[in-house]
Amino acid sequence: KDISEKINLLPLKYFDTTSKGEVLSRVTNDVDTLSQTLNQSLTQIITSVTTIIGVLIMMLTISWRMTLASLITIPISLILIISIVKRSQRFFKEQQDYLGNVNGHVEEMYGGHLVMKAFNGESKSIDEFNKRNNKLYGAAWKSQFLTSIMMPLMNFVGNIGYVVVSILGGYLAAKRTIEVGDIQAFIQYVRQFTQPISQVANISNILQQTAASAERVFEFLEEDEEIKETSNPVKVKEIKGRVTFDHVNFGYNEDETIINDFSADIKAGQKVALVGPTGAGKTTMVKLLMRFYDINDGEILIDGYDIKDFTRSDLRRKFGMVLQDTWLYNGSIMENIRYGRLSATDEEVIAAAKAAHVDSFVHHLPNGYDMILNEEASNVSSGQKQLITIARAILKDPRILILDEATSSVDTRTEIQIQRAMDNLMKNRTSFIIAHRLSTIRDADLILVMNHGDIVEQGSHDELLEKEGFYAELYNSQFKKDQAS
Predict the structure, then answer these.
(1) What are the structural domains of the chain?
(2) Across-strand partners of 275?
C-alpha cells in the first residue's frame, strides 16, 4: 500500500532513470520476501525464543552452576553468527540487486519481443541474460554457502556444551550435591535449549535475504518525492487558455541548463507549433507545461496564474494530450475512450468516437465498442490505436491541447479525416503541436523553432521563411525531400 502511494508521488525523473523491471522487482520480489518471512519465519522465531526462556527457567531450578556452564557456549555461538552474517549480508544485498537486473532485462525483452525478433537479437539477448544471471548465481551461492555452515557450527558448539555439562555434572554427582537423574534431565533440557538456537541460526539466511529486501523497499520509500503541492491552491473553474513563458530556465541536471531564458506569450485559442530536429527539446517543453518537471528559474503562467499555484491534478485536468506513443490498457474500446473523462455517458463516448473517426471502423470489430483490447492492444492496428487516443482527448474537452504528431501512425486518407477532426477540436482552444512534418503547421499562429534545447527562432510560417534562418533551412530541406519522393 505504501509503495503504491509512493509511486504516485515520485517525480518523472525517477522513472526516466530507473528501468521498469527494477521498479517491479522491488514491488513484487522484495515485498514477497518480506511477506513470506512475516508469515513463516517470524512465528518460528517467536516459538524458539519462548522455548529458550522456558527451558532456561527449568535449567535454573535444577542447578544454577550447570546452567552457567551451559551458557558459556552462547557467546561462542554469537561470535560465529555475527562473523558469518557480516560476510554474507553483502552477498544477500547483491543477490536482490542482481535479481532486479535480471527482471529488468526479461521485462525489456518481452516488452520489445517483436523488435528483438525482427533484428535477430535473440543470441544477444540470451548472452546478456546469461551475463546478468551468472552475476545473480555468483552472489546467491556465496550467500547460501556462508549461511548453510551455520547449522553444523551451532551443532558443534552445542556438543561442546554437552561435554562441559557432563564433566561438571559428574563432578557434582561425585560430591553428592546433585542426583544422577537431575543430570540426565538437565542434559535433555540443554538439547532443547540449543535446538531453537540452531533453528534461529538455520533461518538466518532467510532473515538476511529479508533484511536485503527490506533495505531495497525502504530505499524506494525514501526516494525524493515531487515538490510538495502549494498549501493554498488556486481554484479556477474555467480557464481561457492563455499561456505565458516568463524567462524560463530548465535543465534535467542542475549543472546543465538546456532551456535558457525563454519567454513567449501565447494568447487563448492560438495554435502553437514546436519544431526542430530530433532531440531539440520539443517534448521537454510539454513536460514543463504539465509540470512533469519543475523549472529551475522563471515562471510558466496560465491565465496569469503560476502553474505552481495549481495542484498537479487540477493543472493536468486543463490539458488534453495525444502522444505519438499510444497508451491503451487492457479493457474495452469504450472504457479506453472514457479514460479521458470517467463520468462521461455512453452517448458522449460514441459522439467523441465519431468525431475522431473511430466509429467508422469499430463496427467491423468483434463486439464493437465492447471489444476487449489485449495487453499490448495488438488486436487493433497502429492507426486505430491513434484514433482511439484522439477520441479520448476529444471526450476530455480541454482548454489546452498537446498534440505530438498525432497523425503519424495513420494512412493518408485517415490523416485527412483526422486533420479535419483536429481542426474542429482546436477551434477556440490553445494548442501546442509537436510537428515533425513542417507542411502540417503552416497555418500555426506561432512557431517555436528549437535546437539543442533553446528556442532559436519564433514567429509565423511566413515570417520565419523571410528570415532565411534555421527554420527556412529545415523547411526547404524537407520540402525538397517531399518533392523527391
Answers:
(1) 2-221 (1.20.1560.10), 243-484 (3.40.50.300)
(2) 449
